Amino acid sequence: MSAPLLEARGLVKSFGDNRVLRGIDVTVPAGSVTCLIGPSGSGKTTVLRSLNGLEMPEAGTVRIGDVQLDCGSRPDARAVARLRGQSGMVFQAHNLFPHLTVLDNVTSGPVFAQGRSKAEAREEARALLERVGLADKADSYPVQLSGGQQQRVGIARALATKPKVVLFDEPTSALDPELVGEVLRVMQSLAAEGWTMVVVTHEMRFARQVADQVLFLDGGVVVEQGPPSEVLVEPREARTRQFLQRLLDPL
Amino acid sequence: MNAIDWDLVRSSLGPLFGGLVTGTLPLTAATFALGLVIAVVVALMRLSGNWLVSAPARAYVSVIRGTPLLLQLFIVFFGLPSLGITLDPWPSAIIALSLNVGAYASEAVRGAILAVPRGQWEAAMTVGMGRVTTLRRVVLPQAARIAVPSLSNTLISLVKDTSLVSVILVTELLRKAQEIAAPSFAFFTLYGVAAVYYWVVCLVLSFGQTRLETKLSRHVAV
């Protein structure tokens, strides 16, 4: 069996006195979907942001493909950029560039960062927009779109650099409930196409239907992990059961 | 009492307009352009994490903002010759005013860069942009919009501050008015006309500011 596409080992991270990650391991096989779930403050977003160097753990290693980063060695910006180049990211608040059209947002990585030809990048960007159902919005500006459309542009932008892994940081948490479905459906179809995805989410139905593995984090450790049919349906740990219970019955 | 000599007003309109378009306006344009370049460089220096880079920028801003513009002008024009550097009035005026504008504008630019949300940096970095590309393609275009109101303020102040260079013999609007007024002592009339010219220029600039703000904010959520 070949090595998994993404491997993080022993991630440790503190913000001041607050130890948010206390030794986290994540293994993501190529073509799989991994969902990180857990209460707020559990460290799931910090784990995700450690996978592309937006946060730098004090200790641990992250490897994606053949690029490895030793977080404890105070890696320089170039080493971090090399790791970051292996992944794409979709943000909770989409973080689209407001001064650029939808098409220019999607081509921003290929053209500004990868130095690819504008014509070619535009052609691919149009195909990606078609893919997320927004071919007709290419010349709009982000402010003219709904939240769900903005997030789908964010997905197209993340795919445009042809990353090995796509990281999603609570992609539907900032959306009105009726717009969540259109974003999740796009993500589901990406999973079906074989994209490798790591998703921080509170959408348990999505995790149930789409994830290959679910990691439940609490207090900076992975409390439980496995296929969703186990972690979400028959959790072994009391903390996991408690968390799922609270989601099902908030009152 | 006849404080205003209307014939003199009419005959001075042309020459004063000459002072405006050959002195005040080109001096304003040149020093504002240079000042903006200085401002961006200094703002980026101040935002650097490296103390050796940020400290000189901070010192520059502190000294320029802490001393009178007139004194800065005197140091460049009357002071530098004793160091062996003798400059003509125009270069002296451009150097002193640019350095002055650069310091004030750098604060506006710095604030505007800081006002661009952190998520914009992060998004740019995750699509593979480095710091320089992120600044150029993502942050500075957005900072420009944010900086327009305070930079407009700086520009409008600059139009009037250029009148100070009349004391180092640059012929601009105010000096032209002085030259025409001196023989007849018609200071009230000539200074009045000059004031109207300054005011009209500033009105036009304010109008331009409003237009620019509207144009730049069209893609921004209210």
From TrEMBL, chain A:
It comes from Modestobacter muralis. Its main location: membrane. It is found in: Cell membrane. SUPFAM superfamilies: P-loop containing nucleoside triphosphate hydrolases. CDD domains: ABC_HisP_GlnQ. Keywords: ATP-binding, Cell membrane, Membrane, Nucleotide-binding, Transport. This is Amino acid ABC transporter ATP-binding protein. Residues 6-244 form the ABC transporter domain. One of its GO terms (cellular component) is plasma membrane. GO terms for molecular function: ABC-type amino acid transporter activity; ATP binding; ATP hydrolysis activity. Signal peptide: none annotated. It is a peripheral membrane protein.
